[in-house]
Structure formats: C-alpha cells, structure tokens
Amino acid sequence: MVSEYVRRVGEMTKKELFKAVRKNWKEEGISLDQAIYYSIPDSDAAYDAVYAMIPKAWLKRNDEDISSFLKEYGDDYGRWAVTLWIYEKMGAAYTTL
C-alpha cells in the first residue's frame, strides 16, 4: 500500500517540490542531501514520481554523469538522476568526499 505522503509527492508540481527542498535546505539549515531525503520519501514510487518530472533533454544531456555516479556508488539510475537534477536546479554542484 502506498502511503499518503508518497501519494502526495506523486501529485506535487515541480514548483512545490523545489519549494519543499529549498525550505528544508535553507530554513532548517541542513545539507542539500538531507533536504532531498526529507522532501522525497525513501520509496520507489516517490522517486519514480520525481524522476517523471525531469525533462528528457536534461536526462540525455547528463546521462554520462548519472551513469558515472551509478557505476561508482551503486544504487539506482533514477535516484542519481533525481539527486543530480535537484542539485543543478538549486544551483549547487554534487560533490563526494
């Protein structure tokens, strides 16, 4: 069963998503990674909903970077795409330790 919060993420607009991420990031004073984590529930359905918001042209343009992170750190192509897309939209660069 899909939780109500996950369902709500699926119904969010891009503007609402970025507003939620920005609020968590700036107002709560947490890292952008944490802000994304708190704004998008850790479920495939929620990440699939956000992934569907990403413009196809952006995915094509950034496929090599997404694939590189996937190869290096594992997880899921869609989750890396979501993370990198949000970072770019927030004017930040994703860096690793």
Description of the structure:
With 97 residues, this protein is mainly α. The chain has one domain. Helix content is 70%, strand content 0%. The protein contains 7 helices and no strands. It has helices at 4-11, 14-27, 32-39, 44-51, 56-61, 63-73, 77-89. The protein is globular and about 30 Å long. It starts with a helix and ends in an 8-residue tail after the last helix.
- Proportion of beta-strand residues: under 5%
Q: How many DSSP helices? A: 7
**How many domains, as an integer?**
1
Report the major sheet.
Answer: none
The end-to-end distance, rounded to whole angstroms, is: 37 Å
Task: Classify the helix fraction into a percent range.
Answer: over 70%
DSSP summary, beta strand count = 0
Cα radius of gyration in angstroms: 13 Å
Shape: globular
In N-to-C order, the SSE pattern is: HHHHHHH
Structural class: mainly alpha
Unreliable segments of 5+ consecutive residues: none
Mean pLDDT figure: 84
